[in-house]
Amino acid sequence: MIDQELLDIVGKLQIARFEVIYEVGSYGVNLPPYKGSTIRGAFGHIFKMVACTCGSEDHLDNCIYQYIFETKPPENSEVLKKYESIPRPFVIEPILDPRTYFAPGEKLHFAFILFGKALDYLPYFIFTFQEMGKQGLGKNHHSLNLRQVFQTNLHHDLNTLIYDGEAGRIYNRWEPIYANEIFQSVENQYINNRLWVHFLTPTRLQKGGKYLSTAPQFEDVMKATMRRLTSILYFHQDLQFEMDFKKFFLHASKVELIKDQIEWVDWERYSNRQQERIKLGGILGKALYRGEIEPYLPWLKLAEWIHIGKNPVFGLGKIKVASH
Ligand SMILES: [Zn+2]
């Protein structure tokens, strides 16, 4: 179990997941099989136009674009030694529909998740998504109409209407989900000393300077989870916590990997900034672990929301834990 003191700190992390619903415009829309990079690319470009009013590449301290996309470390430079990198305070979860053409009138859903202080900027996200639809996505930039934005609940069901495109209104009635609620949502049915971890989008876990191309050991999954969690807490919610990580990972190393259906998938994205194709492969599939898993379940449940590994802003590293 997690001790109460730790729960009290980490449990304060605020998270909210929103689902965006577009209606495809009269020309249809062409998108690549994996849509995360296209959406993230267009979104970043438009967010900058909307939210950066600095007039130069030297952003002012209060620039919202800078906070969301280029979060700066606090004055104390020591912290960067402790944290591997500064995570973005959001994740875009693309639809996992491999189709590359969507007909006029079809609905296109995807989600985004905000952490900590980024929640204050929700209206900027909604406005940017609306603009992104108008300016168009994919090849030929065909337009999409932003119809609705919902907040989803703990089980990812569409819950609260936040934006109504027809009325042109943003409703200020959403509430963050606290990590504490996610910890409490852990269901006992998973606990039988066996647990499947599903890697739903390409997951890029590093070990010894290389990306893992086969099923990760349980310990590697936990290391990636805690690395991501501690840095999100520190940079986006001003929270730090102490725990005996050595012991925590030592115990995790005793959980065995007993079966897997994992494959490496190569996925490329085109970088406008670097004017080249960048390889962003990762592992996909599922792995079965056996051992004393219960103490790790709350953390893994949280990992479902924050994603793990490299490049989560594109939707990579989405995991799910399950009994099968
Ligand atoms: Zn700026």
From TrEMBL:
InterPro entries the UniProt entry points to: CRISPR-assoc_Cas6_C
Tree of life domain: Bacteria
Residue ranges constituting the CRISPR-associated protein Cas6 C-terminal domain according to the UniProt record: 197-319
Classification via Gene3D superfamilies: 3.30.70.1900
Pfam families (alphabetical): CRISPR_Cas6
Protein name: Uncharacterized protein DUF2276
Organism: Tepidibacillus fermentans
